[in-house]
Design brief:
The protein is mainly alpha-helical. It is built from 7 helices and 2 strands. It has helices at residues 5-36, 46-68, 73-102, 117-144, 150-169, 175-183, 189-207, and strands at residues 41-43, 108-109. Helix 2 runs antiparallel to helix 3 (73-102). It is globular and about 50 Å long.
């Protein structure tokens, strides 16, 4: 059944939201790095932007599922993995926002004493792995469609590859470079670009039906 005009508009705007969310989530670690350097913080104002960006990206995942229209198994796995990964990262961002708010909207430096640190580390690794691999699979699904958007497919496939290559090369990188990579979203720039492109795909596919 053809979706209603109201639903098509909502899906189209979810594409716009995904692009905005990708830019927001990718930019926040860079802004925090510019403001605070390499010192780790439990919560800052930039975590609010990260949480907002992740929420918009989740909306983009939902919009993309509508554009796929009954996706095959690979598509369902790709969307599910990406959505679950973003939820894991959202939990961590929400915790950081809560710490920032509880401290009276002042930055909260990390003290090194964190009993739940191991859990957060594994949650972050799981979230990144799912979101990146899911985005790569989305590229595979798009590649199988008629007249696939070549640039979008390419950046989706790069999203999981670039972080792996950088991690493997980490041993030969100077310490200041490694610290900058860790404290910023340099590893995830292809992911951000991919979701800007995917947001455009959602927007164009949906408005093309009107």
């Amino acid at each position: 059944m053809e979706p209603s005009p109201k639903r098509r508009r909502a899906v189209a705007w979810s594409g716009v939201g995904a692009a905005v969310g990708a830019v927001c989530w990718t930019a926040m670690p860079w802004l925090q790095f510019a403001a605070f350097g390499t010192r780790p913080y439990v919560g800052t104002v930039y975590d609010i932007g990260s949480l907002l960006g992740l929420g918009l990206l989740l909306g983009g995942v939902a919009g993309l599922s509508t554009v796929f229209d009954r996706p095959e198994r690979t598509g369902r796995v790709a969307l599910g993995a990406t959505g679950l990964g973003l939820c894991c990262l959202g939990v961590l961002a929400a915790e950081s926002v809560a710490a920032y708010v509880a401290a009276g909207f002042t930055p909260v430096p990390a003290t090194g004493e964190d009993p739940a640190g191991l859990v957060r580390t594994w949650l972050a690794i799981t979230g990144y792995a799912l979101a990146l691999s899911g985005t790569g699979l989305i590229g595979v699904v798009l590649h199988r469609r008629p007249d696939p958007p070549a640039v979008t497919v390419a950046v989706c496939l790069l999203a999981p590859v670039v972080p792996v290559l950088v991690v493997l090369a980490g041993a030969i990188l100077p310490l200041p470079v490694r610290m900058a990579v860790v404290r910023t979203s340099a590893l995830f720039l292809p992911f951000g670009v991919a979701w800007v492109a995917l947001g455009r795909v959602v927007r164009l596919a949906t408005t093309g039906r009107t």
